Every structure is written in structure tokens, then in C-alpha cells.
Amino acid sequence: MTAQLNPRGDVAVLVPAAGAGVRLGPGAPKALRPLAGEPLLVHAVRRIAAAPSVHTIVIAAPAAEVDFVRRLLAPVAPVTVVPGGAERQASVAAALAAVPTGPQIVLVHDAARALTPPALVESVAEAVRSGHDAVIPVLPVVDTIKEVDAGERVLGTVDRSALRAVQTPQGFRRSVLAAAHDAAGDPLTDDAGLVEKQGLPVVCVPGSELALKITRPFDLALAEHLLTLDS
Predict the structure, then answer these.
(1) Contact partners, residue 80, CB within 8 Å, separation at least 6
(2) Which of 61, 64, 128, 145 could form a disulfide with 158 if both were Cys (CB 3.0 to 4.6 A apart)?
């Protein structure tokens, strides 16, 4: 049986959390690495659960850690935990298959964006609710971007005014996300890319500086500092 968070909610949140996190260095799977004494996944789920629209949270965990993740998250929020796949895309598909029939808005969220505020979850969900098929939170690109060749020689400067850095949660009408995964070929780095390949529009909403992706040790240290400012 799928665990429910808010019976009146209309949103299911999928959290692919089976990745190894190689760039963080050796250790536990990425979502289970500690941040200020608690795994990244705990921080992420706590914030998702605080969003009033969320009905269901489904975690795709490392296959060997499913029972551990269930126990870990039991005091945090009602969640459903399923075994993830070798690739992110497979983990999202496994989590999507476990969503109950009710929610027709599905968000996909990286556990590594552990400090994402509940307000961003609500913003993405509301944009889908208003009629968009696919919605992504974004931030403007602030660095100068150079295009280079295989020899690291600069070919030109890219106009950054039309560039955006993409975050999660990404939101979809459930039928759109399901169809995109059914038609998926080679793995892509985000679910919006699968929808784009189907020729459907993807709409942007403002992201959050707190939704940074914790990928490297520096990111982990930055996130810990941000937590101290929030306490």
C-alpha cells in the first residue's frame, strides 16, 4: 500500500535516490551521505513533506538499502520506498509505477537538492495545476560561458541572456511524464529532456538559491553553512 501524506493533496513527488555520488568521494550512496548529522535524503524529504499540496512521496532507493531507508524516513514523513535502477531514468520509472491512482501532478526531485524550500515545491506544482504539461525551476546563468573545442581552445562566447541553470523539482502532468518515459531511448540527465523529445513545451518558473545540488565536498560544506544561517 502506498503511504499518503496529505489525503487532500494532488501531487506525488518522486525522489530518485539510488545514485552512488562518486564526486562526493568514497562512502555511502549519495542520498545517505550526512549533512549536519542527518542524511541528505532526510533533509530533502522533510522539506517536501512540508509542502501542503503533496499527497504521496515515493523514494527510489539503492536496492540493498530499501529496508534501511524505510526505517530512516518513518519518523520524518509517510513515504513509499521502492528499489531504484542502475540509471536515474530507471529509478524515476520505478517510482512513477508506485504512485497511486489519485495524484495527476507528478514532481521529480533530486535528493541532492536537500535544502529546497517547500515554497518551490508549491510553485512548480501550481504551474502544472494551471495547465502546463511540464515545468522546471531555473536560475539565470551568471558566469560568462565560453564554447571550446576538443583542445580547450575558445571558439566563442555564448550569449548567457538566453541560458538558464535548471533545478528540481521538475513538475509534469502525470500522463505526460508516463508517456515520455514509455518512449525514452538513451538516458538523459533530467525528465524535462524526455518531454522535450516528445515535442511538448516545457515552461520555466523562478528557482531558488537554496535548491543547490550537492555534488562535491565543497557543496556539502556550503549546505552545512546555509543550515547554520537557517537555525
Answers:
(1) 2, 3, 56, 57, 58, 59, 98
(2) 145
Residue 207 CA to residue 21 CA, distance in Å, equals 23
Q: What is the CATH number of domain 11-134+166-230?
A: 3.90.550.10
Structure confidence by residue, pLDDT tens digits, 144-193 = 999 999 999 999 999 999 999 999 999 999 999 999 998 877 777 789 99
Q: State the Cα–Cα distance between residues 5 and 17, nearest whole angstrom.
A: 19
Q: Where are the domains of the chain?
A: 11-134+166-230
Q: Which three cell numbers stand for residue 182?
A: 514509455
CA distance to 35, 37, 79, 97, 138, per residue, from 2 (Å):
28, 28, 8, 11, 31
pLDDT tens track for 72-83: 999 999 999 999
**Is there a contact between 163 and 141 (Cβ–Cβ < 8 Å)?**
yes
CA distance 197 to 191: 10
76-103 pLDDT, tens digit per residue, is 999 999 999 888 899 999 999 999 999 9
Three cell numbers, residue 71 = 526505517
Peptide bond into 169 cis (omega under 30): yes
